[in-house]
Amino acid sequence: MARPTQREVVLDAFQELIVEVGAGNVTLEATAARAGVSKGGLLYHFPSKSDLFAGLVERLAGAIDAAIAKAPADLVELVHWYIDEATEVVAEENTVWLALFAATDAVDDDVAALLGDLFARYSTPLDALPPVLREHVRLVGDGLYFNALIGGPAPSAEHLAQITESLVRNVPPSA
């Protein structure tokens, strides 16, 4: 396994600090210290705190694109995929999402827009569904995701299967 680049080490440190102290409280100095690099070394890769946020969002985009690449073409499978993905919250990655969403007021508008665009990008595979069904699936999936993200009560497996099947019943027959 290749050693992480200095850029990745800095992003890892920034991500850890966001989770620990909140995005609005992270400083460039603290990030450099956590990463074990000089402030100049940090500034070489990320000239500002906004650039650090953008770098982190860019890294999360890779995870989203990898998930999107796994979206099935079959519409029934697509509904199942989206709901399953929404309920498979990975604690570390999603803690960062929660911290970033909470910090949108601590970052400039461009970074907040990038974050919003990235989250919206995740639902693009649903564009293959009819518009009303697409929105229902997105809202159910996003609700399940955010519920899991904040530690809300999860529906039982049986209830989740019933919800998914009620959505699948609205998938039009294949042409």
From TrEMBL:
Cited SUPFAM superfamilies: Homeodomain-like
InterPro entries noted in UniProt: Homeodomain-like_sf, HTH-type_TetR-like_transc_reg, HTH_TetR, TetR_CgmR_C
Location of the DNA-binding region in this protein: 27-46
Keyword Flavoprotein (UniProt): no
Domain HTH tetR-type positions: 4-64
Pfam families found in the cross-reference section: TetR_C_28 (PF17937), TetR_N (PF00440)
Keywords: DNA-binding, Transcription, Transcription regulation
GO molecular function: DNA-binding transcription factor activity; transcription cis-regulatory region binding
Gene3D superfamilies given in the database record: Tetracycline Repressor, domain 2
Superkingdom of the source species: Bacteria
Listed PANTHER family: HTH-TYPE TRANSCRIPTIONAL REGULATOR BETI, HTH-TYPE TRANSCRIPTIONAL REGULATOR RUTR
Descriptive protein name: Putative TetR family transcriptional regulator
Species assigned in the record: Ilumatobacter coccineus (strain NBRC 103263 / KCTC 29153 / YM16-304)
